Amino acid sequence: xxxxxxxxxxxxxxxxRAVFADVAPDGVPSPxxxxxxxxxxxxxxxxxxxxxxxxLGLVLAEEYGGAGLDTVALCLVLREAARVLARVPLLEHCAxxxxxxxxxxxELAAALLPGAGRGTLVLTVAAHGRTGHDPAELAxxxxxxxxxxxxxxxxxxxxxxxxxxWIAVPAHAGDGEAVLALLPRTTGGLTLAGxxxxxxxxxxxxxxxxxxxxxxxxxxxxGAWERLRQVLATGTCALxxxxxxxxxxxxSDYTGKREQFGFPVATFQSVAVQAADRYIDLRAMEVTxxxxxxxxxxxxxxxxxxxxxSGDVAVAKIWASEGVRRVVQTAQHLHGGFGxxxxxxxxxxxxxxxxxxxxxxxxxxxxxxLGDLLAAHPLG
Length: 380
Known about the structure:
The chain is an alpha+beta fold. Helices cover 48% and strands 16% of the residues.
């Protein structure tokens, strides 16, 4: 069995490393010292550089100016982005574009995908429901009225909604199936209230009051929203992995230089054991991430494993949530008081890690989902 990445996937990593090489994780005010959001917009210069390097069209077909790559390639790039806390809606943008390409009609694809690949049109998605704990598709209702759909409801914590161009909104159509509406930010009846994340980034509470969407802008293909949600969850795992790897590297560097009793603290057994445990966490996060990404790209239904792909996504998110929390907590402990210094970037990584831990559900929520899957699909 060959676990190596393809030449195209490796080329995407090299391009991403070149783009992110000069990104400073402390390029905006500290979330610990800022009462609201750390900035009004995402990093537009970085976004333009990503577009110029063809990384925004990574997962799009060639007909839309993309590279035609897959979820694994996207996760490889997200991993690099998280190492420098890149402030761009790369996951939400690319995952939404994938959903439009796979399930949207030709009119919607033609309207969104060429601009999405060039970076001139920015996409985001409402994926957290009304409270952040309930299924997102149940927070909004959708009903047909003539040739249009009418949407009502509330979605919370929509990333960078105030500065994006289109928002993907899952909704419940009343027949047991979710639909996905693509709405311009300026759509009538759609209002945004300011929120901000644990990491200090700008979010929005989205309220829909009789929002009218033409049928061409609503994806009602079975499983479209579920697939998008799985890509978002898997991408979040990739972000957690990249962040955790960078934090462990920072910790290794610090403990290798910090001396006590005439020796680097990294040589003390208690320090080495804690760092080794976190290394094991990261390797478990990595293997479960690639299993989930591979299943998303290569398998449908239960092909490729005894459980549906949602089982692999749940396992990856459990490890990502628990693992990234343990990595940053150990890093703070081994850095001592230096880790809490707001002139040092570790506290920023801690804030981002907490955001990623809870994003799209904490470990407990995915453990419950995995338990339901195991009950429905007995192994053996």
